Amino acid sequence: MSEYHATINWARKGDDFLDNKYSRIHDWQFDGGQTIRASASAHIVPEPWADGNLIDPEEAFVASIASCHMLFFLSLAAHRGWQVEEYQDRASGLLADRGDGKLAMTEVRLQPAVRFSPDTRPEAQQIEALHHAAHERCFIANSVQTRITVDSGRIK
What we know:
- Helix 1 crosses helix 2.
- The longest helix is centred in the middle third of the chain and has 24 residues.
- It is built from two helices and nine strands.
- A hairpin with a 4-residue loop joins strand 2 and strand 3.
- The protein folds into two domains: 55 residues, no CATH class; 99 residues, K homology (KH) domain (GMP Synthetase, Chain A, domain 3), CATH 3.30.300.
- It is 24% helix and 28% strand.
- The chain starts with 5 loop residues before the first strand and ends with a strand.
- It has a three-stranded antiparallel sheet, with no helix packed on it. A three-stranded mixed sheet has the order 4-7-9, with helices on one face. The protein has a three-stranded mixed sheet with strand order 5-6-8, covered by helices on one side.
- The chain is of the alpha/beta class.
């Protein structure tokens, strides 16, 4: 069993808080000392109270699923002796009404493109099976109700 921590810091900087006109920019601090500037999504909170150039929780959610999937994929490929040279995923997520009037990240679509070393390149069916196995093992995917699809047909 493992435990993980994040510290989220925000402070009002003279904004008119009670009128809902305050900055949503804040910091995420992690165990290793990394600090990331974050904001509410500019799709949800208009600028200047949000900053669309910063990471937002919805993007982080999509990235955490894509990253978890990739890490298991790489581990499984290495275990099978398939040399991965490059992995890129243009993942996307959909924020939508989940059917009860509440918004949720209802779908995440992973679109990994993987380049293998030519002398250890698996067949398309083996790559698809590898993505399936990675998805089954991904802790984050196993933690959410979001529909997750993997378009495993992209090979670099």
